[in-house]
Amino acid sequence: PSDSKKSVVLPSAEVQEGDYVVIYWTEELPSSAVSTDSVLYLCSGTETSLSDDNGILTLSSSPVQGSAVLDCVIYCSFESTQYEGFGTKAVLNRVNKALENAWWYSNAVDSSKSTSTRSICRKLNSTDTDTASDWYTVTTRGLSFGSANTSEAYSP
Description:
Strand content: 15-25%
Order of helices and strands: EEEEHEEE
Mean pLDDT: 87
Number of helices: 1
Helix content: under 10%
Strand order of the largest sheet: 3-4-5
Structural class: mainly beta
Number of strands: 7
Low-confidence stretches: none
Radius of gyration: 16 Å
């Protein structure tokens, strides 16, 4: 929380194992986003989007500096020739911090195959190992907001 280019403080919400949390990167939730028993729709409160190519996402217990990191994912297209493929020194520093603190244990998830219709998704029904093997790029149009993604991975 003390070193981020972008941060969003989500509202307090109770979630259970197996629930889906869908975060809209908009100022307001669309009227069609109605939460149910197993799907919680949240709004980031900002139109500022995430980096398409390189980045690190962390979920922490609080926005307060020093709070516990609950989950993390590092992604990179490796198209940049600077800073080990991450493009900027700031992103590389954040990646190194995640590795040093054991929030992440492997190379980055490859974002080079993701597009506006092919998202990077966490594998269904798998144990979270905090490694790139937990993730895949879903086949074109294989996502469904608020429900399970198809398990069919994109293959060029």
